Amino acid sequence: MPDALKPGSVVGILGGGQLGRMLALAGHRLGVRSHIYCPDPHSPAFDVTPLRTVAAYDDEAALARFAAEVDVITYEFENVPARTAELLARLKPLRPGARALAVAQDRIAEKTFLTGVGVPVAPFAPVDSPATLAVALSSLGYPSVLKTTRLGYDGKGQRILRSAEDLDTAFAALEPKPLVLERFIPFEREISVIVARAVSGPVAAYDPAENLHQHHILKTSTVPATLSAASAAEAIGIATTIVNALEYVGVLGVEFFVLADGALLVNEIAPRVHNSGHWTEAVCITDQFEQHMRAVLGWPLGDPTRLADVVMENLVGDEIAAIPARLGAGQRPHAYGKTEARPGRKMGHITHVRRFGDEK
Ligand code: AMP
Fold this sequence. Notes:
This protein is an alpha+beta fold. It has helices at residues 18-29, 60-69, 82-91, 98-105, 107-116, 130-140, 167-173, 229-245, 280-283, 288-296, 322-325, and strands at 10-14, 33-37, 51-53, 72-75, 124-127, 144-148, 158-161, 179-183, 189-197, 203-205, 209-214, 217-223, 250-258, 264-270, 308-316, 331-335, 346-355. The strands form three sheets. Strands 9, 10, 11, 12, 13, 14, 15, 16 and 17 form a nine-stranded antiparallel sheet that branches. A hairpin with a 5-residue loop joins strand 13 (250-258) and strand 14. The longest helix is centred in the middle third of the chain and has 17 residues, at 229-245. 43% of the residues are buried. The model has no long low-confidence stretch (mean pLDDT 95). The structure holds adenosine monophosphate.
């Protein structure tokens, strides 16, 4: 590991949300300091490290000062502006690299990349006008899902089209253009694989998690997922193909649809630690946050082995009040330190740990 950064190094993290906070906490355990860059002065990550920059993501002077104060740069959200990524990558190693960002920021680039490396996705077509939407529907049929290509999250920026009556309003409502039409997939379940790749190439993947959403927000991740051994191995194989093809460094989340016959389609990838991987913190030898920091530092990856069965439950909005009343033995709480519990806001999670051999 000739290029491994030493303990005492400073990792710059773009983004100050809970993911940045949990990365910084993991970094501190490794003896690494984290410098958080975020425009919002009330960011939860600021609570856990004294090194901070409060500035806009396009403030070039602030970005240059930040780069000068850190040894390596990573990020906790995929919508880092391309120009910001380019500017920083010229000054310090940016891990994961700009290519992973470009691919993950744009659903058409993402699906084109995935298809190009042999990874199955839902049939799709780019849409930039009512006329191209009509053409796309003639091949994909109803129902289909119309999505923005950029800046969608937690189900925002998409509409299901069930008949010709839905077209004009959906096309007009979704911004920014261009859009992408996807065939509606009658999936049986949704799973995700959290995978990591080190600078020197080794890859480590966690067991697939089964994900349930409520109001378009992740509610629970359960491991093991209800999945055949063959589908689990295939999901991990696909995640490995993706990180290798991107020459990726760090942790990446891959979301899949599982069809009735066990076939897998990739829905999307996230070039960062992922909400559906929070359970790793409670039950894996090396959790996703430490894993990401190790990769970014040029260190060897840790062991992703899972030591117990687990359900991670997100606490959204007022549900955060459940801590501490709902805590029993075997439940690990994690609160993100957000002061305002707005509806739909992810405030924390509880991980329910079930030791192997415990009764269900
Ligand atoms: P996304 O923003 O692409 O992750 O989509 C959010 C959620 O919408 C997914 O987790 C699915 O539950 C649902 N969804 C997205 N795309 C499709 C599709 N093509 N077919 C069926 N459901 C979808």
